[in-house]
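Deliverable D4.2, example record:
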Amino acid sequence: MPPADRAATIARNVRAVRERIAGACDRAGRDPGAVRLVGVSKTFPVTYVQAAVAAGLTDLGENRVQEALAKVAQAADLGPITWHLIGHLQSNKARRAVVAMAWIHAVDSVGLLQRLERTAREEGATAEALVQVDLAGEEAKSGAPVDVVRQVLAAAAACRAVNVRGLMLLPPWSADPERTRPYFRRLRELRDQLADGGVPRQRLAELSMGMSNDFEVAVEEGATIVRVGTAIFGRRAAR
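Output generated by the structure prediction step:
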């Protein structure tokens, strides 16, 4: 696709996704301004990021630390971008991640949170973090069971450089978004239970859930962050 056509398509897609978010918010009686749209640019070159930023998108997400670091450097002159690491993070990559990324979505253990906090202090960095919750028990996916989620949120009380802001969910994929709705509802209910149990509200302010095929349902169920790739950038080529 020629660059001009690509830019026009991405701009049109960003507008369409925002309109769909607004529609979902209207159905749920929510303010569209309360939902942050993260464009997932993984596997796409920086020219796609440039087009998305030109279309007004300021939050971008990447899955892999190495690709994210390259993209952050390549996009440095595009203006303010808030970068989100949304994929699984290995502890040995925590230092590079916490320096480059503003948000880390997939904290799934006390050990990883403490590693991020320690390295952030050493580097003079700060980061926002979300605790990835496992509600389906899928072996191929990361995420903390509920008892570990409680432990991570408790450990967050000692953190100063890493600010835990809420919960993240990657439910089993389905072509029918209504099949994922119960997982989104359960995450919202878990958030409310944790808050009622004494977890400070500021550690539970965000719910990162919903992707291209189901973000409207996620918004209806309370998502404050949606991670949208295909609906903005198109289908990815196989690696």
